Amino acid sequence: MLLPSNSEYIIVGDLHGCIDEFKMLLSKQGFFINSKGYIESNDHNKHKSIILLGDFIDKASEEKLTQTIEFIHQNFCHLNQDQKRFYLIRGNHEEMVYRYITNDPTLETTPKRLDQKEKYYNTVALLEKNSRLKKLFLELYDECFIWLKYAYNEHFSATLTHAPCPEKFLTQDTDEASSKMVKCISRSKHKGIKLDDLIPYAHQEAKDNQHYHIFGHLSQPDIRQYKNKICIDTSAIYGDHLSCAIIAEESLRFDSVPFQNKQESGTQTYNLLFDF
Ligand SMILES: [Mn+2]
Asked: 2: helix, coil or strand?
């Protein structure tokens, strides 16, 4: 969907239940959160919109996942009352959890699947025992876009998706293109292979212009940019940072906040993007 270009956009990477960091990042960007958890509109932020780039669930503690879903739902309804100011993009974690909790018949219940469900998709167990939260999640899932595009003028635009993907699929509304924008080739199934070899299109298709492709999904130690390709997943739940890209007119900048240690962080070995 095309975004109106008269708003400023705060585009936040993979939350994975890092609700405290999300609130802190929003505060830094001029969004005041009141005692009831509502983001208050004021002169500092009324021209700003929030975009979540997908994967707002899983990996975190149940307490934080609950707070995350509640906060997003509450403010999704609140901020979108008069005009649309809060957008969601679907990540592979939302998609997988949706398939589990709606009993997708194409998901086989093999021992491996059940193991994955516990290991990678811990929101499933939470939603299966909390029907109120499940309803909130399903309502949010229905509101997710696969891609969003901001086109300011012929020199400046930004296409937003959860995962990196070959350019020929970007903004295409076919099932194949959608799946490519939500998830790229599995890194866990290709351990030991450099990310730049796994997704060579990311650097091969990069151009020195201001038609950006901004994505998350790849869990990096910092914001990784090569020409017009930018990954803003800076691994908040792994104890690193939660980052955002900020688009205003024809400018692009970044901000981030460190992990706040309000829950246990995950551990992983980084596979660096644009490492050449
Ligand atoms: Mn992802």
From this structure: strand
